[in-house]
């Protein structure tokens, strides 16, 4: 039976790559963009349907949840995220920058997952949150981008709370590190291309089906320290 994935934040970078990779493996893909004018690349991919969503806007999330009523998702992949004020330490970033970073990377993904959870197959579904190795409290500090890393650590923390409150379920939850990848966010120096990272992530998601619980993994399936 054909499987369905919802990729949040698929206009470019890893989200667009995930839409391509899932599609090439025969999945039905629902891909979200903030601006429907930025969907040219997605329009070229077979089996992709488009939705408009700003993950930080509660009304937008609610409207998407209503449009998805009656659709069962095998995978919800919450990929969207921002880098924030990259080169500023916590002492220099403005309150607005910090608020936007933590709301987008840590709070909005969990609110969205709570709202869309009824659409995810409760027996064999997978919910993936795009984390980062920089969010590991053990290994992230000292690797740079400390505020961004802290926002992903907050995402990991909130994801563990989300999982602890799931109760009896067949759902599997992944906190995923895509590797350091050449995208607008990852920059030109990154060693990995989008295709290598997304092929690996889709493989890990496929393997996780039916596993249950919560795993923090990289795109190659290596478990990461919290
Ligand atoms: N690249 C790396 O090396 C790397 C490493 C570790 C983790 N990550 C994580 O991987 C994810 C994707 O990163 P990327 O490198 O592909 O970044 P990117 O090229 O900057 O793309 C970010 C994507 O997120 C979307 N987005 C941002 N804010 C959103 C919002 N409020 N609502 C909906 N969509 C939103 C963007 O949409 P617009 O086009 O509308 O802005 C875009 O599609 C992020 O969570 C990032 O933190 C990346």
From TrEMBL:
<dbReference type="InterPro" id="IPR052184">
    <property type="entry name" value="SDR_enzymes"/>
</dbReference>
<dbReference type="InterPro" id="IPR036291">
    <property type="entry name" value="NAD(P)-bd_dom_sf"/>
</dbReference>
<dbReference type="Pfam" id="PF00106">
    <property type="entry name" value="adh_short"/>
</dbReference>
<comment type="similarity">
    <text>Belongs to the short-chain dehydrogenases/reductases (SDR) family.</text>
</comment>
<dbReference type="InterPro" id="IPR002347">
    <property type="entry name" value="SDR_fam"/>
</dbReference>
<dbReference type="GO" id="GO:0016616">
    <property type="term" value="F:oxidoreductase activity, acting on the CH-OH group of donors, NAD or NADP as acceptor"/>
</dbReference>
<protein>
    <submittedName>
        <fullName>SDR family oxidoreductase</fullName>
    </submittedName>
</protein>
């Amino acid at each position: 039976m054909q499987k369905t994935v919802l990729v949040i934040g698929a206009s470019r970078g890893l989200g667009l790559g995930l839409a391509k990779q899932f599609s090439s493996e025969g999945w039905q893909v629902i891909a979200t963009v903030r601006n429907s004018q930025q969907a040219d690349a997605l329009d070229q991919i077979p089996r992709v349907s488009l939705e408009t969503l700003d993950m930080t806007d509660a009304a937008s999330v609610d409207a998407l949840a209503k449009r998805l009523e009656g659709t069962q998702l095998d995978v919800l992949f919450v990929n969207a995220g921002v880098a924030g004020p990259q080169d500023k330490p916590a002492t220099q970033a403005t309150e607005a920058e910090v608020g936007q970073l933590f709301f987008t990377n840590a709070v909005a993904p969990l609110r969205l997952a709570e709202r869309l959870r009824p659409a995810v197959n409760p027996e064999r579904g997978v919910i993936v949150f795009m984390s980062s190795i920089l969010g590991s409290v053990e290994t992230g500090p000292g690797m740079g981008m400390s505020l961004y890393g802290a926002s992903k650590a907050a995402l990991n923390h909130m994801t563990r709370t989300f999982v602890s409150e799931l109760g009896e379920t067949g759902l599997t939850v992944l906190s995923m590190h895509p590797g350091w990848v050449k995208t607008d966010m990852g920059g030109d120096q990154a060693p990995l291309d989008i295709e290598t990272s997304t092929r690996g992530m889709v493989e890990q998601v496929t393997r996780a089906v039916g596993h249950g619980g919560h795993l923090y993994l990289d795109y190659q399936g290596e478990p990461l320290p919290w």
